[in-house]
Amino acid sequence: MNQGVVWTGNRQELQVWCQQYAQAVTPDVFVKKLTQFVCAATDNLKQGAWHEQCRPDENFLDANAVGYDNAAHDVDRFKTPFAQKIIVGEHAKIAVIADVHGDLYALGSVLTELIEAGYLDQRLRILTNDFYLVFLGDYVNREAASIPVMALLFDLFVTNPGNVFLCRGNHEDAYTCTRFQARLREQQSQGKFQEHVTLLDQLRDFIPDYVFPQLLHWFEYLPHAVFVGNRNGKTDKVEYQLFTHGGLELGWNPHDFLADEQSNFQLLTKLDRLHGMHELVSEQSRKHLEQECQQLWTEHERFDLIGQQGVIDFCKPQSFYSLRFGGCWNDFLTEQFGAELATISYRRKVLIWGKAMSWRWFERASSRRVAVRGVIRGHQHLDEQLSQLNGTNNMRERIVVGKGMVRQWDGTVYTLATASHIAHMHSFVLISAAHGWSLRHYFKKPDKPAWSFHVRSLWD
Questions:
Q1: Cα–Cα distances in Å, from 431 out to 95, 219, 259, 371?
Q2: In this predicted model, what pLDDT tens digit does every residue of 316-341 receive, in sequence order?
C-alpha cells in the first residue's frame, strides 16, 4: 500500500479518502505499482503447477523482460490466455466484486464494508488465511478513475498473495480499449454518454508522452477463469464454482484440468470451438447457428466465432484483433427459450447461452470426483437483438430490479454488478463454504452509508 494514504474504514470519510488516494497515484507511483503487480503475478505463475506441464513461454514469465513494444502488433505476440483453480477449506469466505469500470468510490465502498466487518485491516491486508477476494473483471473505462482503480487492485494483489484473484474482463484488452474509445467518441458526438471517459484518454492526460499500447501488458497476467472448489464431506467430491467475467467458452473443456489434483493452472493454447459445438449443441440448433453465421458475416468475420477450421491456436501467428474469448465476452439468456437454445449476438459476435446448453457444459466439465456447480459472472450485456428476444425481461433491467444481482436456473448462473452506473447501486456478494455453500448479497444506494443484505443458499 501507499504508506502515505491509510484507509480510514469510515464510511463518512470515504469520499475524502478516494480523493487523497487518487492524488497520491502519480505517474511514477502508478508505474511502480504496475511493475510490482507484474512481478508478483509472474512469481505466482512460475511457482504454480501447470496442467500437463504445459507452461507459458519463459519470456512471458520474466518480469524484467515483459511489456508491449510501441507497435500494436506486439499485443498478438503476447497473447497467453490461462485458467486457474484453488481448493479452499470448509470455513472459507469469498467476497466477489463485479464490474467497477473506473468507479473508485464504488470499489472503496465495498472495501470499507469489508474493513468494518473485520475481513481487512486499514492497510487492506486480509486478516485471516481463509478469506478471499475475487474480482470479475472490467476494471477500466467509463468512469474517470480507471488509473487509481488499477493502482488499488495492484495494491490488493501484492499485499495479499494467494488470496486475491483478478479475473480478466473484455475491457482488459488493448484492442478493446481502442474500439471502446472509437465507439465512445462516436456516441458522444451524438450527445450520448458525455460523462464517460476512456482508459486511453486518461493515460494520455496522465502521462503526456504516452504511446499505445504501453502499460497495458498487465492485462495478460489476469486469468480468464478461476475455479474455486471445496470438498463435500458427504460425497468426497470437490464442488467447484466458476468465476469469470462473461460466460462459458465453447472451445474449452476444463474436465481434465479440474480432475488433475496436482495442477492449479492451465494454459489455454487451443480453443476447439467446432468440437464444442458438436458436443454441446444439437444438430438442428447447430445448423441454425451456422446458417446465421453464413448469412450475416464474411468468412473473416466468422473466424471470430469459430476460428480457422474450428480451432483457434494461440501458438500460431495470426491476428486476434476481433477474437472474443468466451470467458470475457459470452452471455446468458435470461430465460430458457426452447429446450437448448443458444443464439448469436450479431454486433458483438459472441454466443448467448441457454439453460440446457449451459448445464451440458457444466456436466461435461465434471467427473467422478469433481462437480462444477455453476458460474458467477459480471458483464451484464444483452444487446438490442437479445432485448427484443427477451421482451421486457432483459438482463440490464433484471440487474436493476435485483439491486445488483440476478440469480438464474436454480443458482447455476449468477450475474453481478458493482459500479453504480449499472444497477444504480453498490453491490457485492459474500460466499461462505461452511455447511454447504451459502451466499449473502450486499447492496446500498451510492449516497447512503448503510448496506442491506439478504442470505440464501448458493444452489438449490
A1: 6, 26, 23, 18
A2: 656 565 677 889 988 888 764 544 55
